[in-house]
Amino acid sequence: MATKRKPKLAVWKFASCDGCQLSLLDCEDELLAVTDAIEIANFPEASRTIIKGPYDLSLVEGSITTPHDAERIHQVRRSSKFLVTIGACATAGGIQSLRNFSDVNTYISTVYATPDYISSLQKSTPIADHVFVDFELRGCPLNKYQLVEVISAFLNSRRPNVPPYSVCVECKQRETPCIMVAKGIPCMGPVTQAGCGAICPSYNRGCYGCFGPSEMPNTPSLSIWFEHLGMNRTDLVRTFRGFNAYAEAFRKESEAHEKHY
Amino acid sequence: MPIGWTDEQDGGTYRLKERDDEALFGYQVGPHSWKKYLHPPRRRLWQAEMRDNHMVIVDDEPDYPRYAFFGVRSCELNAITIQDTVFTSGPYVDIGYRERRKQAFIVVVNCVEAGGTCFCASMNTGPQAEQGFDLALTELLDPNQHYFVVDIGSKAGAAIIKQVPHQQAQEQEHMAAQQAVAQAARQMGRTLDTRDIKMLLYNKYEHPRWDEVARRCLSCTNCTLVCPTCFCVSIEEQTDLNGQTAERWQRWDSCFTADFSYIHGGSVRSSASSRYRQWLTHKLASWIDQFGTSGCVGCGRCITWCPVGIDLTEEVRALRDGEPRIGVAIPTLDAV
Prior knowledge:
heterodimer; A: alpha/beta; Rossmann fold; 2 domains; globular; B: alpha+beta; four-stranded antiparallel β-sheet; about 35% helix; disordered C terminus
């Protein structure tokens, strides 16, 4: 591949825990190959050297929670040819979107000694609510192999292999017998997008829905089955109100059960 | 061997239970079929490398494993036969499947008990295996003795039996084996009326039942992945970061995913009802036109392993006579 120059990569942080961008540094075996193929131009977690934009590929972590960030994301978009959001915060609003179901001002007055200093938006929202996003990479945290796959697909001008089907496919690929069928453990896998490799069911834990809704999530049907397995309404709300609480399908499902409290 | 264990199966449930005899095969079909060996979930088709700015295809010389399948049930043997037709008849042969299959040694166990979701008797695929095996065992447990009646199906099977202590079966033992298998046929937990089933499904192309089942269907793909005959795959291209090597992989896919029917402009089957209809109609009707047999062997896995217990025998019954759904009553949200 005859390239004139290495593509420039930038990593941006909004409201998030940094776990997803650190996954890039966790790519120990692949990291040298990544830096061979791409110039890490703006990644404060990795290097204090900042090379000015524009950037060929921007990875955006975190959700928009402040008026300042709502402005800043437009600057990021303007300086990026290709913008990929990484993780549940950036793609769905993250765990901090639990505030979206109540009044943020009550939290601010409870948590902070001087609430006047805090400038916060009422809702935590995904990046795609604010700017055009070229590709979304799900997960809390994302899967580092999927991250390398997206970078590799970008560098080779091909489609990334990040299927939107359910976690069930990954359970079957790794030959984990369905824990909901075999043990009666409620599992979000049938309505959750694959990508983690179906870790939790392989440890006899139901899927927590970290990768957000799958391509066609039938959450009402799964809720009926959860009730059939003995789950109460409070837990139904909690089950759908996790790291991807504000993703549309999960939000609607938790709200439907909250009404029935 | 799982001596002392059995299973209980119903729509959406599978439970292991203890049993108080010494049966070696006192259980029904489990979560995995033999498909995973002959038609593996993922496999590399070919790979290429960049050498001096040219792409060179790297010869892959796969070492096809020699399998011996021990404890194959009659329904599953029929499923293997169906996949033989899918993969090795016609002009486009799946070489990997053919090579793995050619070397496989198959020991059948005829069922003497049937499970809650079994209906092989309806599909004429069991419980007695008729052909296509190397050896077929029927396990018999009576108060005085525990023994197997063995049918030899091939020279390779005969060669194995020569090395095992055995004696010529008596008429009475043959009878006992036949009776045990006949008892399993009477115990089937499910039935499927296959009369004129092809035209039934073709004629019910537009039917409200498809929307009803879609309200329950999760489009999660479990039914297709546990099905021993479902064979659909997708192809993925993989590259390394610096563009020096590329690989083409085949992986299991399902008619329940949106991408599976994606063509330019969108997915052909965008609704759950269209996907369920596609699956059921292909399995029970258009499979007959395509491959000459039904695509269903009555193993019941799609019923047991559906996370919400959708039962194709019930769906066919509803399409056939328009009767309301019978079976486990599931509370609806409004009713709770």
